[in-house]
């Protein structure tokens, strides 16, 4: 988990508001995990959720986060169930910390890609 946070930007900007407002609702890396949820039935099926505070750092109407989750190791299937929830099926059992780390990596990837598309520089 520490490695995933170390790869994440120092601050996740509120890019859904555009460049002019990106820092207004920014989420510090140190606080990110308090706004993410992971839950499992059996260690291979996972429900992932984002609280409202984090929904401003990535546009969930785009498929960037879904694609980033699908690109993570051991992911077999990803479904974007509702605006802020995803179902992820894995090829093998993982711990909650391992899944949370992959969630952070996927969120980081989607955040950086969407910021790039908007011409917003993400602080490292």
Structural features, described:
The protein has 124 residues and is of the alpha+beta class. Helices cover 29% and strands 23% of the residues. It is built from three helices and six strands, in the order αββββαββα. Strands 3-4-6-5 form a four-stranded antiparallel beta sheet, with helices on one face. Strands 1-2 form a two-stranded antiparallel ribbon. Strand 5 and strand 6 (85-90) form a beta hairpin. Helix 2 crosses helix 3. It is globular. The model has no long low-confidence stretch (mean pLDDT 94).
The beta-strand count equals: 6
- Uncertain spans: none
- How is the largest sheet built, in terms of strand order? 3-4-6-5
What proportion strand? Answer: 15-25%
| Computed structural class | alpha+beta
User: What share of residues is helical?
Assistant: 25-40%
* Overall average pLDDT: 94
Indicate the radius of gyration in whole angstroms: 14 Å
The sequence of SSEs as H and E is HEEEEHEEH
Q: Globular, elongated, flat, extended or rod-shaped: what is the shape?
A: globular
Distance between the termini: 18 Å
How many helices does DSSP assign? 3
Largest sheet: 4 strands, antiparallel
